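Thread title: Can someone regenerate the structure for this chain?

I was given the following input by a collaborator and told the matching structure tokens would be attached. They weren't. Posting the sequence so someone can regenerate them.
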Amino acid sequence: MPCLHTYIHNHDTLNMEHLRAEQIHITPRRGSSWPLKVSTQQGEFLLKLSGAGQGFAALVAEIIVAEVAEYLGFHVPKRALIFVDAQTILEDGDPEVLELIERSLGLNLGFRYLPHARDLRPEDLQQLSQDDKALIYWLDWFSMNPDRSAKNPNLMLEARGSKTKLWLIDHGAALLFQHNWALLSEDAPKALKPWLAQHIFAGFAPLARAWHEIIRLELKDNLERLISQVPDDFLRPLQGNTTLERRRYAYVAFLLKRLRQDTIDRY
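Best answer:
Regenerated them for you:
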């Protein structure tokens, strides 16, 4: 097994930039989230809107999974908090998009647009190491991400000369537990998820279990710091009848219990 620090690296706590959307460009719809491309003073971003799909819960999942992925050494597009207001220019007047934007006025989540990256193809899989595949499987087990199948891997490649960079994208469906806090129990963090059998890297589960022994020792002391990257404005709509501080810690506590498992789900 490679040295842990080939993958796990020091993760500096960086506050995301606050930007304003200057113009919104229509992009093809992808699932329920319908991300849009926006222009800002800092360039173009792919905008995940708070009024789409699972709303703020999806934005929370995007941030937490991105933070853990980067901690493992993977590339995730740079994130920014992007403010959308009534003065933001829309390039056309599609009624459905206008309604979506109206529901999303305020703070949203942007990912740096990757104009030179393309979706991963089956023939690209050989470029990924066994450890990369195992760690991606581990990440999706840990974050309860059901959205990385062979049909929809949510992985992109960016070729620059002789170098190729792998990007992990679209984690809004992860952290399934946050969608119904009332149903959480002590056993919920140990729940088996049958969708792991359809994971694009399910065949690397044995190697992912070996990595689990290492990662859980390294990550447990950093988890609270990674989750601190979620802004209060995204958590507040999910606060329920508890305090904001307790809701934030609920994420830490749930994921710590997943880390403390002796092994990961077997499929």
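The radius of gyration is 18 Å.
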